[in-house]
Amino acid sequence: MSFGPDLRARVTRLALENAVEHRSEPRPESILGALLGFDPSLRAQRAELVPLVREVIAEIAPLSPEERETRLRSLGGPEPRPVRPPRSTSGDETSQDLPDLPGAEKGRVTLRFAPFPSGALHVGHARAIFLNDTYRQRYDGRFFLVFDDTVGSAEKRPALDSYDLILEDFELAGVKLSKIYYKSDRLPEYYRHLPPLLQTGSAYVCLCPAELLRHRREAREACPERDREASWQLEAWEGMLSGRYGEGEAVVRLKTDLNHPNPAFRDRVLFRISNLDHPRVGQRYRVWPLLEFSWAVDDVELGITHVLRGKDLVMEDEMEQALWKAWGWTGPRFAHFGLLRIREAKLSKSKF
Question: Which keywords label this protein (predicted)?
């Protein structure tokens, strides 16, 4: 598909702006995201726009930093950002207003958005960001970005450039962040909160191979380590940390109801061993929490008051609540929004 000169000029302007601002080669994801943000009518042509974006990047790649700045100025400088209309402060409610957050008080609301940095954000993430930001402004609260950068898996890994992409998306959206956290910096905190669960029998180290673990979960069967004494559990945990157990040889599981109607909820895994290299911390850690454990710790320690998430994550609510009960903690309140479906579109940031 061919595009007119005006669109090509806009793409060039955005690419030059990206390159000048970051003193590096422009990123296609950032340019395309900015372009679609300025002109949502182009979203239906996203796939056709990708070759144009890459062609423009190749065109400006040989230019020196000074040449890029000169050319950007010749095009009128950075593209003017769209102005978001001011939110009404009259307090008048309309049928279009969002409902109030339960138990929310002015100046005492803290929200968080926790993306896994494996690529650029998509429109589903954008909705969650703007929902959180709307409530932050309504209650004069705080909004944290918490990178869910656990080690991931061989199929889905955190990517170093994705951190910057996500931060650029917030900047483009005009959303003000109060603080930024990285889970990969908080491993010692997660380690600190696991032994009390082992001591009270709320969690245990499981040595079942993955296939056997799945079989026993489906069959509602307990693994042999489930009821071993606390001293063994603590020693096995230290063995996971020290390298006595290899990848796939031991995990930590939370004790739940083995007859729970959802097999996935039965004694869910809290920690596992991974030898994968992490883009920020390398191989400093070999035992990583699953996201539900990290959320349960962070949502309390960071002072989150309300968690806004999709209805598809209700089981994650149950997991956090089960952990809080085991620790004797009181966690934030949950609010849910429905799934966003767009015909013939796949909402995934894992691939561009």
Answer: Aminoacyl-tRNA synthetase, ATP-binding, Ligase, Nucleotide-binding, Protein biosynthesis
